[in-house]
Amino acid sequence: MPTILGQNQYGKAENRVVRITRDGDTHHIKDLNVSVALSGDMDDVHYSGSNANVLPTDTTKNTVYAFAKEYGIDSAEQFGIHLARHFVTSQEPIHRARIRIEEYAWERIETSDGNSKFIGADDVKHSFVRKGQEIRTAQITFDGEKWQVISGLKDLVVMNSTNSEFWGYVKDKYTTLQEAYDRILATQVAAQWRYSWSSDEERMPNWDKSYAQARKHMLQAFAETYSLSLQQTLYQMGSRIINSRSEIDEIRFSLPNKHHFLVDLEPFGLKNDNEVYFAADRPYGLIEATVLRDGAEPQIPVDMTNL
Question: Is 12 in the active site?
Fold first, then answer.
C-alpha cells in the first residue's frame, strides 16, 4: 500500500543557555531551556535523504547561543520571537518555526545582616539561589505572517488550609469517600495562556509585566475563592486573568488535586480536629479545563500542559 508523509518538524531540543548581564559589579541572570522545531519543504529529506533544504540542528543550537549574545534576553517571549523570525525569514524552505522555552528564575542571596536580596549589598551582587516556586514557560510560533505566543508556568504548588468543601457528589456502591465540609485544597498548577497579539502591525505586549500580572491574579483568585470544588477554583482563576488582562484571550489549566487526608488518631486516644493530615502523592484527581474570552476560539493544544 502506498504511503505519504504527514506533518513533520525537526530541530534541536533543550538548549540550555545562561546569559549574564553585567551592570558594573551587579549581575543579572537569565537561565533558559530553549527547544527549536522547524517545518516546511522537507519532503525530499524524508523520501530520498536529500539534505538540500535542511538547516542542521547543530546550527539551530548555535543560533540560540549567538542570539543570547547579540540580542540579550529581555524576556523568554521576546527571545523566542527573535529566533522564530530569524529561522522563517532567513531560510526559504522553512515556513514555520516553533520555539518552546522554560525559564528558571534566580534571586539574590540575602546577607547575614538582613539586607534585601534585591537591592544589591556589596557582597551579594553576584550571588544567587535558584527559586523553587515555579518554572516559567513560553511557546512562540511564526509562519512568516502570523504569530502565536503562549506563555505560562508549571510546578507552582499552592494550598488553602481551609475554605474548601467537597460534598453532594454522585455516589454508587463503589463510593467510599466521605463528604468534607472543611478540607485542605492543594494543587500543582500548570497553566498556559494565549495572547491576542498575532501581527507585527499590532502593539506587542509587555511580556514580563503581563506574566507577573497573570500570575498575581491567578494566585489571588485561588486564595480568595471559597471552593466547593477544584473545578470551581480553576474557573475563577482563569476568569480573573481573562477579565483583568485584555491582552490574554485563552488560558488552559492542568490542576492535579494534591490530596490531604485526615489521619485517624482515635487508636491512640487522640482527637484529630482538622490538624494532622497524610499528604498522598498518588493516585490523584486531575482537573483540566480551558477558560476563554467570550467570542474567542480555543487554540491551545491539549498536550501543552507539560510544556
Answer: yes
Q: How many residues does the chain have?
A: 307
Torsion angle (degrees, nearest 10) of CA 220, 226, 229, 230: 10
Can you read off the three cell numbers belonging to residue 76? Answer: 523568554
Report the alpha-carbon distance of residue 175 to residue 36 in Å, rounded. 47
**pTM above the 0.90 mark?**
no
Residues near 222 by beta carbon (within 8 Å), at least 6 away in sequence: 158, 160, 233, 236, 237
User: Cis peptide before 283, with omega less than 30 degrees from 0?
Assistant: yes
* Active site (annotated) includes residue 259: yes
Decide: 217 and 153 in contact? Cβ < 8 Å: no
226: left (phi over 0), alpha (psi -120 to 50) or beta: beta
Tell me which of 27, 57, 111, 125 is the catalytic residue: 57
Among residues 73, 88, 76, 5, the alpha carbon closest in space to that of 35 is found at 76
Q: How is residue 33 written as a grid cell?
A: 531551556
Whether 63 sits among the annotated catalytic residues: the reply is no
CB 109 within 8 A of CB 125: no
Q: CA nearest 40: which of 85, 82, 9? A: 9
pLDDT in tens, 140-173: 999 999 999 999 999 999 999 899 999 999 998 9
